[in-house]
Amino acid sequence: MSTERPKLAIIANAPSPYRLHQHRRLAREIPEVELHSLFTHEYNVFPWKLDYAPEIHTKHFGPGEYAKGRSSPRRFPGEWKRGGRIIDWLKNERPDVVAMIGFADAARFRVLRYLRSRRIPHYIFGDSNVHGDRATGFARAFKTFFLTRMIEGATGVLCCGQFGDRYFQRYGSRPDATFYVPQEPDYDEIASVGPGEVEAIKKEFGLADSRRRIVFMGRLAEVKRVDLLIDAFVRIAGERPEWDVVIVGSGPLEKDLKGRVPAELSGRFLWPGFIDEQRRVTAVYKACDLLCLPSIYEPWALVINEAAACGVAMVSSDIVGAAVELVRDGQNGRLFRSGQIDDLTRALRDATDPANIDRYKQGSTDVLADWRTTTDPVHGYRKALIHAGLKIAPPPPTATGGPKDQYKRFIERARA
Q1: Treating both helix axes as pointing N-terminal to C-terminal, what angle do 76-93 and 106-117 enclose, rounded to 10 degrees?
Q2: CA distances for 392 relative to 6, 227, 380, 384, angstroms
Q3: Residue range(s) occupied by CATH 3.40.50.2000 in the chain
Q4: Mean pLDDT over residues 101-120, rounded?
Q5: Helix 195-205 crosses helix 278-286 at what angle (to 10 degrees)?
Q6: What whole-number distance in Å separates Cα of residue 330 and Cα of residue 332?
Q7: Are the C-beta atoms of residues 87 and 110 closer than 8 Å to each other?
Q8: Which residues sit opposite 329 in a β-bridge?
């Protein structure tokens, strides 16, 4: 009897700490399957210091190359050739299932066409969010034509959550073939950041124990709408004299945003800049009380997961992919209508109320624990692999995340 395991190949654009963490989990927690991690490029926005575990079987198809801009017309010939190299690998290795991360460049188009022509079970993953699907005219028609056909030819789709599910539904995805595999940080590493590291970060940035803090974590760019956070806090600053704002990040709007703060409140805004080490980022979260994410668009936003794992209350705009999953209004924070300053002001006033803040912080811990039980990405992959025909163990009955009632057939299989 052959002892060879079925193969899952995941084709992603570039490695990151979060992606490698997920691949390590898949390799270790679905041992019935041999995972192969294919990366079309080596870098995304900037080079990471990465740890490639041998069990994820890493293969690079663009060493030294950046993924950013891969969809531009001028890069079409090179990406098309890259797709050919990936197809050669597929012919040699013959994976049983393929998960394609992304779909909007020539390499992916070519590979997806090959997978369909050879009837190889495959999934399309996107962290897309229905609120960002704003193409019109020719661009809309072009996208609809190609994406609808890609989904039609695929075994199914993989998405992060509800907003991604709704996005793919526009292009013909089927509930029975849609599986939630959300992005996530390394929760164990977050939990390992202890009081000593938190105290060190407080000392480094002058974060007094006597103060409460709102934190923003991200790039200082227009889409993040940090100006809304500043303006809303200015409105409530007199009512909340014990609160400060910590803005972590850098970007093109940094100077303008600093200039937006009234002189009399400048001492209540702290600007640590960009922090490039994840443990230090975690320590900042744990030194704060409330995350505010006022973005007008975020496909997912891992900062929501990170903040919840640190026991931080949250206020987020209602278009953020992770927020609709992990911010439960009135339990661990508040959602507000994207771009609405009055709505954000009310949300911050409520969340910073002494009667609410500690309850909301505990709520984040509870919400995350519940969500991880129902919507673990490893369980989502198990469902997808079973749907593709692999004979592996089903996920636990608690894995209810995904389109309505889809999980029931996997529970029935587990009980059989």
Answers
A1: 40
A2: 10, 50, 13, 11
A3: 7-182+375-401, 187-371
A4: 95
A5: 90
A6: 6
A7: yes
A8: 333
Residue that wins the pLDDT comparison between 127 and 56: 56
CATH number at 7-182+375-401: 3.40.50.2000
Angle at 269 between CA 264 and CA 272, to 5 degrees: 145
CATH no., domain 187-371: 3.40.50.2000
- Reported confidence tier of residue 415, pLDDT bands at 50, 70, 90: low
Give Cα separations from 229 to 104, 135, 209, 267, 356 (angstroms): 33, 28, 23, 16, 19
> Residue 323: how many CA atoms within 13 Å on its side-chain side?
27
CA 196/CA 320 separation, integer angstroms = 32
Model pLDDT, residue 50: 83
The token duo for 261 is 């703060």
Of the chain, the end-to-end C-alpha distance in Å amounts to 25
> Average pLDDT for residues 40-48, to the nearest whole number?
77
> What residues contact 343, with CB distance under 8 A and at least 6 apart?
336, 337
Mean pLDDT of 156-179: 96
Quick one: what percent of the chain has pLDDT higher than 70?
Answer: 97
> What are the tens digits of pLDDT across the range 243-286?
999 999 999 999 999 999 999 999 999 999 999 888 999 999 99
pLDDT (tens digit per residue) in 343-370: 999 999 999 999 999 999 999 999 999 9
CA diameter of the chain: 77
* Helical segments of 75-225, H only: 76-93, 106-117, 137-153, 162-169, 187-192, 195-205
Distance of alpha carbon 248 from alpha carbon 244, whole angstroms: 13
Q: Is 90 exceeded by the pLDDT of residue 233?
A: yes
Contacts (Cβ under 8 Å, ≥6 apart) of 169: none
Q: Distance (Å, rounded) from C-alpha 310 to C-alpha 307?
A: 5
User: 3-class SS at 383?
Assistant: helix
Average pLDDT over residues 24-30: 98
Is residue 215 within 8 A of residue 201, CB to CB? The reply is no
Write down the mean pLDDT value for the chain: 94
Q: Which two tokens stand for residue 219?
A: 């790039």
Average pLDDT over residues 292-313: 97
The structure tokens listed for 201 are: 């970060």
